[in-house]
Design brief:
Elements: H1 4-19, H2 27-53, H3 60-71, E1 74-75, E2 86-93, H4 98-118, E3 123-124, H5 127-136, H6 144-150, E4 155-168, E5 172-185, E6 191-196, E7 201-203, E8 209-210, H7 216-232, E9 238-239, H8 241-253
Length: 256
């Protein structure tokens, strides 16, 4: 649950963006606009309350919390060693389900784009090059080091995709995904330099999204984007307000 000030500013921002929808057609631009406007609204909200409370005794702790909200909440990357490296991103699943295998490929492509955009001076091996190498070598086993060397990478970000689902009952969409992250440094003889099994990714976090509000293809694409962003957060610093932008998307779709 969002604190009152953050929820209020987020809700007003979503209403503004909905009014401007014809001018902001691209979903990525819209999400970015929501994040920027929410931050600005939070700052204004903070200034207003600080001005009101500054003369009150016993309000120092409250003012400190408000300043924290207004200035953002930076989150440090658990692993920052991908800068200035040539990285192969691979996502595989042991599941025989075609749906899960397809999701793995989509997650790899989306994660690749995230890393290119967010990690300084990273060089990411194109997914098509990885797919071509796998086809030529009939590669159907989980040997990430062999694959990385085969495509000329010096690091491999390996994602093992466990369960992947989109539905909760007959009338709700709710994405759930279990993942394991392993980073291999091929320059250091394939040493594992980062290993994580994060909590299950869920979207939306609370109630599901009604099937009347969005079709399955659109929801799937959005959930893939959410999963890739969660994965990318392991490799670059980010602001927690990005997660509020995700909540804004749900409010927008539900007409809130």
């Amino acid at each position: 649950m969002l604190p009152f000030g953050e929820f209020y500013c987020l809700q007003r921002t979503v209403l503004l963006v909905n009014e401007l929808s014809p001018q902001i057609a691209d979903s990525t631009m819209k999400t970015d606009f929501i994040q920027r406007c929410t931050r600005f609204s939070l700052c204004l909200f903070t200034v207003f309350l600080v001005t009101t409370l500054v003369t009150c005794s016993g309000c120092v702790g409250m003012i400190a919390n408000l300043l924290h909200v207004g200035m953002g909440n930076p989150v440090r990357a658990p692993y920052g060693g991908l800068e200035d490296r040539e990285v192969a991103v691979v996502c595989l699943s042991n599941s025989s389900s075609f749906r899960t295998a397809t999701a793995a490929a989509q997650i790899a492509k989306s994660l690749e784009k995230n890393l290119r955009r967010q990690v300084n001076d990273i060089k990411v091996v194109d997914q098509q090059k990885i797919d071509d190498w796998r086809d030529r070598n009939e590669w159907n086993q989980i040997d990430y080091i062999e694959l990385g060397r085969g495509v000329g990478a010096d690091m491999v970000v390996a994602i093992d995709l466990g369960s992947f689902s989109l539905h909760e009952g007959a009338t709700l969409f709710k994405g759930r995904c279990d993942l394991k992250i392993t980073v291999f440094d091929l320059v250091d003889e394939g040493k594992i330099v980062y290993d994580s099994r994060p909590p299950q990714v869920q979207y939306p976090l609370n109630a599901g999204q009604h099937v009347a509000d969005i079709n399955e293809r659109e929801f799937r694409n959005k959930f893939i984007e959410v999963v890739a962003t969660e994965l990318a957060h392991h490799f670059y610093d980010y602001d927690l307000i990005e997660d509020y932008g995700r909540d804004a998307d749900v409010l927008k779709l539900s007409g809130g």
